[in-house]
Amino acid sequence: MKLKSRKRMLWFVGDKVVYAVSQGLKVIACVGETLEQREYGSTVVVVAAQSEAIAGTLIGKKVIIFKLLGT
Fold it and tell me: What protein family is recorded (predicted)?
């Protein structure tokens, strides 16, 4: 996936989370890497970017819990 479209997708997910919360919904957002990304060794970078896109929109409002599975 091209970098621009990946960033656009992350922002889109963040916007969807914000909208859902604004409508009174409780959101469980799942993040994770593809097999290709895992094999390439970019798990932490990918998951961090996904988490940041979501967390950046909800600062001070929600709790984020994560578990990094074995690599």
Answer: Belongs to the triosephosphate isomerase family.
Contact predicate 44/34, CB 8 Å: no
Question: DSSP character for 71?
Answer: -
Is the distance from CB of 65 to CB of 46 less than 8 angstroms? Answer: no
Q: What is the pLDDT of residues 48-64, one digit of tens each?
A: 888 888 877 766 666 66
CA–CA dist 51, 55 (Å, integer) = 6
Other CB atoms within 10 Å distance of the CB of residue 46: 17
33: helix, coil or strand?
Answer: coil
Classified as helix, coil or strand, 30 is coil
pTM above 0.70, yes or no: no
